[in-house]
Amino acid sequence: MILETLGHRFSVVDRLDPRVRTVCAICAALFPLFLSDLRVLVVTLALALALVLYERPNLRALGKRLLAVNVFMLTLLLLLPWSVPGEALITLGRFAYSREGLMQALVILLKGNAIVLSIIALLGTLEPVRFAHALERLKAPSKLILLYLFTVRYIAVLEEEYRQLRRAMAIRAFSPRLDLHTLRSTGYLVGMLLVRALDRSERVQKAMKCRGFAGRFHTHEHFRVARLDGVFVVVLAAVLGSLLVANFA
Around 118, how many Cα atoms within 13 Å sit in the side-chain half-sphere? Predict the structure, then answer.
């Protein structure tokens, strides 16, 4: 499935107010962007990873999420140093794999993984509906919240439609190759998927109007900030502040 649940054990993070978790996740995700010291970035990444592992997530699902990020990061690690001038570590004709470029790529890799792990630790185990409710309480744009909710709800439906079309093609002995027939068939597949998505959206819209939907989901849950939320915010601020001081020391 496209949306795979990141199973985990119930932890302190789950007891926090979703609004607090959302704000803390934003701060923790933006924080690595201001770091430049490689050692501080390593510590930041280690702390984010420790927080994720503390929740005992499904390691397979976690690995899939990290793999999607690190495929790009490793490509950057292989290619970026060839375009940055500096001390050559490897030379191939006129091209040099520079030490400065390697350091830049490592900084980007550490920042990217620290950001992803921070978001996973604080928001990866938060139910989509509660997250949308938290965004609403934080005065996020209502259209953005609706778009998020409908995407979460119907991306799995579109995936199932895609699987049905692929099974239909397989039953008709379709075998993808690098030829014009394959390209034409793939175009038909994408086009039919768009047609089905449009048809499904019209049916969903009519069903929601019949139920009196007027552009806003009503919820009965009300969040309350507790003492634990304040303690968590203070600890997080202290940790981020210490790392920031160490980075510029």
Answer: 25
3-state secondary structure of 10: coil
Residues of the chain with pLDDT under 50: 1-4
Q: Which amino acid is at 128?
A: P
Q: What is the pLDDT of residue 187?
A: 92
What is the tens place of the pLDDT at every residue in 151-171? Answer: 888 888 888 889 999 999 989
The predicted pLDDT at position 1 comes to 37
Q: What is the Cα–Cα distance from 246 to 249, expressed in whole angstroms?
A: 5
**Residues recorded for the chain:** 249
- How many angstroms separate the Cα of 81 from the Cα of each of 43, 55, 71, 161, 164? 24, 36, 17, 43, 44
Q: b/e map of 46-79 (b: 16 or more CB within 10 Å)?
A: ebbbebbeebebeeebbeebbeeebeebeebbee
Q: Say what the pLDDT of residue 46 is.
A: 94
- What are the C-alpha distances in Å from 43 to residues 48, 63, 242? 9, 20, 11
153 contacts 3 by C-beta, under 8 angstroms: no
Q: What is the pLDDT of residue 233?
A: 92
Q: What is the token pair recorded at 180? A: 């014009």
Q: What is the pLDDT of residues 195-222, one digit of tens each?
A: 988 888 888 888 888 888 777 777 766 7
CA 77 from chain center: how many Å?
21
Q: Give the residue carrying structure tokens 């199932």.
A: 160
169 phi-psi bin (left φ>0, alpha ψ -120 to 50, beta other): alpha
Domain ranges of the chain: 12-126+222-248, 140-210
